[in-house]
Write a structure and sequence with these properties.
The protein is mainly beta. It has one helix at 2-16; strands at 20-25, 35-41, 46-55, 65-77, 84-98, 108-126, 131-150, 164-181. It has an eight-stranded antiparallel barrel. The radius of gyration is 18 Å and the shape is elongated. 26% of the residues are buried. The mean pLDDT is 89.
Length: 183
Amino acid sequence: MKKLLILFILFSSIASQSQTYIKINAMTTPFTIPNVGIETSIGKKSTFQFDILASFWKSINGKPREFYTFTPEYRYHFKEKNNGFYAGFHIGASLFNFQKWNYLNSTLYEKGVGYFIGATIGYQIKINDKFMLDCFLGGGSHQGFYKGYDLATGERYDKAQKFNKSGEWLPYRGGFMVSYKLN
């Protein structure tokens, strides 16, 4: 708990002394899957962003669609901060109760946790002194630890003793963040 408090105080002090933007993804929000974030300056051409993507849907058509991702990301801006091209590197975590893409025509789904490591490329456009648009796409490796269940029976379908494991390389981030400058 002490480490979390120290980290919060450190992040708050950095944010209060630099350009900080709060953001919301205009592509995911209309689908009621909010993606919100905060980006703050940490150097001449560097920023740090933390965002959360969440699908609160317990199910859609009887199939589980609930997930949460937490993504801290370092970004290097090639031209200037918050204007032009950038590249980012992130390591994040996920929680899910979701049906994998290759099980869409079945009653099988997975419940578990994961971590991911990857990169993001993007372009930021200043609209005025307070607003900015951040267009981005990212992906990498996601490693999941889950238990697989059958919706029809409620029983586990996988043969793993504790958790099943899987990993994929895939695009998992993207959109258009509408950003508002706090200071």
